[in-house]
Amino acid sequence: MAIFGSLKTVRAQTKGRDTNYAAAFAYITECTKSGAAAHKLINSLAIGDNERVDIGGGAFALPQVYMTKAPRETGFFESHLAHVDVQAIISGEEIIEVADTADLKVTENLTPGKDLIKYAMHDKAALLRLHAGELAVLDPTDAHMPCIAVDGKPALVRKVVVKIPVVPTPL
Fold it and tell me: In terms of CATH, what superfamily is 3-165?
């Protein structure tokens, strides 16, 4: 299931995973440093905008700015087979609902062309409330519905999602 918390906590919990995690955490850190190129980029984006930034090793970052969704039914559960999501809130706060993909019904499978599987609504998901400086690591078995408004009140969020390629497990 998802790993979440402060950058320091998540870095400790993912120690030993592949080197793309270090690149992901370095990019997320740069997004928070005033004057850094990544910080300037994410703060220059208008609502609804996002960019793609390659960070090496097949990993890439998607800095983005949006208004959180309310009601929650305007969102959808999703998962990805080819990438692990590292979702970091730079400013604002949101709820990410998380459930095991085995417990959900697939409504649309866009793989392998697009690394996206969509699922039917699920009322038994865990709720992660993430604030600025917090992040979640979402593996392929973690269906997630991000961007949900806290207390049903849409708010501005600046977030970076780093997509880390899934490394096959040796037999």
Answer: YhcH/YjgK/YiaL (2.60.120.370)
